[in-house]
From TrEMBL:
<keyword id="KW-0325">Glycoprotein</keyword>
<dbReference type="InterPro" id="IPR003598">
    <property type="entry name" value="Ig_sub2"/>
</dbReference>
<keyword id="KW-0393">Immunoglobulin domain</keyword>
<keyword id="KW-0677">Repeat</keyword>
<feature type="domain" description="Ig-like">
    <location>
        <begin position="3"/>
        <end position="86"/>
    </location>
</feature>
<feature type="domain" description="Ig-like">
    <location>
        <begin position="91"/>
        <end position="131"/>
    </location>
</feature>
<dbReference type="InterPro" id="IPR007110">
    <property type="entry name" value="Ig-like_dom"/>
</dbReference>
<dbReference type="InterPro" id="IPR051170">
    <property type="entry name" value="Neural/epithelial_adhesion"/>
</dbReference>
<dbReference type="InterPro" id="IPR003599">
    <property type="entry name" value="Ig_sub"/>
</dbReference>
<protein>
    <submittedName>
        <fullName>NRCAM protein</fullName>
    </submittedName>
</protein>
<keyword id="KW-1003">Cell membrane</keyword>
<dbReference type="InterPro" id="IPR013098">
    <property type="entry name" value="Ig_I-set"/>
</dbReference>
<dbReference type="GO" id="GO:0005886">
    <property type="term" value="C:plasma membrane"/>
</dbReference>
<dbReference type="GO" id="GO:0043005">
    <property type="term" value="C:neuron projection"/>
</dbReference>
<dbReference type="InterPro" id="IPR013783">
    <property type="entry name" value="Ig-like_fold"/>
</dbReference>
<keyword id="KW-1015">Disulfide bond</keyword>
<keyword id="KW-0472">Membrane</keyword>
Amino acid sequence: LTPTGSTSTKVELRGNVLLLECIAAGLPTPVIRWIKEGGELPANRTFFENFKKTLKIIDVSEADSGNYKCIARNTLGSVHHVISVTVKAAPYWITAPRNLVLSPGEDGMLICRANGNPKPSISWLTNGVPI
């Protein structure tokens, strides 16, 4: 089985295509199956290529992080490999701040929600000076 050993790791960026590969040898030729440990493969974003040797997940997100197992099986036995996947993400807006026009003495609220992996820090500035 390639990759060799029982485990390996893979890091991918949010929004990219995740490609995981397992190549098995045997006679009779093994059938390859993929599972996500403790979860499901994403329904509309998962594709198999190369007679299931390649697992392809498009538009990956942080929720796609986890352990993916490929299992190669024939009538004489089976072998497996676990690939630990981490999806990293540059900061992105959940709720971006919007322009606010206020009259003198009026109160207002600016909301800023961002996410990423690693989690981004948020800082507020007014005219380039930290608040």
